[in-house]
Amino acid sequence: MKRPNFNVDIFFELLSRNNKLVKKFPLKMPDFFFGYALAKASGFKGSLFNFRDEAEPFPLKERFKQTDKKLIYKSLVQLRDGDSKGIYSLSIGLLTEKNIKNEFLVYHYYTSDDSNYPQIVKIYDTNKVPKISEIKKDVSKLIKKEKFFTPFIKKKLKQWKNTKMVEDRRLTKQEMREL
Questions:
Q1: In the predicted model, is pLDDT for residue 8 greater than 50?
Q2: Gyration radius (Cα) of the chain, Å
Q3: Does residue 142 have a pLDDT over 50?
Q4: Domain extents for the chain?
Q5: Contact 80, 89 (CB under 8 A)
Q6: Could you write out the three-class secondary structure of the chain?
Q7: N or C: which terminus of the chain has fewer CB atoms within 10 Å of its end residue's CB?
């Protein structure tokens, strides 16, 4: 469901750090920064701690469709695992909109124990998005820091070194065309 007052321009302006207030925003909490951009683009006024995002956290493609249909998300990694302790999912992809000049490399590790927002890892010029091998380098630091990957997710990430994309299910014909 699209948010009634979601402003895509404000969302991407904040994510690209082209806003005076955002330039002062600390980068120590990148998921909090994403939540801030989401709240402001939704027209939310008040403390960010009171903002409630109703979008499903996984998969990211569906999350962004629920936020606004103008958002374009290309999945590179989409994995889900679960055990008696909870549900775990990992998403890595590129986020853009057809009227902006940037693509945002998005990383999100979600667990049912911890609700956090995706992180913007890097911003690319739409005309200069690097090859997948360079994108993997940009994300590798975050992957190495993560201590709580399940064995299944670790195994699939090792496979990603040799492929363009990893998912834990078969791709539809439409998804293959979108790559």
A1: yes
A2: 16
A3: yes
A4: 8-178
A5: yes
A6: CCCCCCCHHHHHHHHCCCCHHHHCCCCCCHHHHHHHHHHHHCCCCCCHHHCCCCCCCCCHHHHHHHHCCCCEEEEEEEEEEEECCEEEEEEEEEEECCCCCEEEEEEEEEECCECCCCEEEEEEEHHHCCCHHHHHHHHHHHHHHCCCCCHHHHHHHHHHCCCCCEECCCCCHHHHHHC
A7: N
160 pLDDT higher than 60: yes
Q: Rounded CA gap, 95 and 71, in Å? A: 7
105, 94 Cβ separation under 8 angstroms: yes
Reply yes or no: is the peptide bond before residue 118 cis, omega within 30 of 0.
Answer: no
User: Could you report the per-residue pLDDT of 112-122, keeping only the tens digit for each?
Assistant: 777 677 888 88
Q: How many residues does the chain have?
A: 179
Nearest-5° Cα angle at 64, 47 to 15: 55
| pLDDT attached to residue 162 | 64
Structure tokens at 152: 């299944």
